[in-house]
Amino acid sequence: RDEVRWFQQFFARVRGRRGEFYAPTWDRDLEVGTEVLLEGSFQLPITDENEVSRPDNDRVYRNVCVRLRDGTVLLRQVISGEIGQSGPVLVLSEGWPRNINRDEVLAIHYMPRWRSATDELTVAWVTAGVGRLSLAWQTLRDV
Questions:
Q1: Burial code of 60-98, b = ≥16 C-beta within 10 A, e = fewer?
Q2: Taking all residues of the chain, what is their mean pLDDT, rounded to a whole number?
Q3: pTM, entire model
């Protein structure tokens, strides 16, 4: 019930078209294209060449959330995409804090900017202690 109350309070703060926030898609949007992300490097090597053109053509998906298996979360803004010597890369706003092996990466999610699409939040109580929330969100261009 406390977690449901937290979501209700969060929804009240971002209700309607005035409240905007960044949140992950929770899909595995990108896969690391090399064995190691090098400390200090501003590049994210990826496997999908089609993603290289996204920074120039799509103003929604401009940020990434890199989740590591140890619970670390790294947030980065995507500046551009290019084909590097080793394949497709996204150029980021900030370098990696240390060498990160590919097997340490749990998932990479895009983090679009969102806002509520409606002013409705539905809570369906499955049990006395478990509630199911229904929300409608829309993505926004990141300018």
A1: ebbbbbbbeeeeeebebebeebeeeeeebbbbbeeebee
A2: 91
A3: 0.80
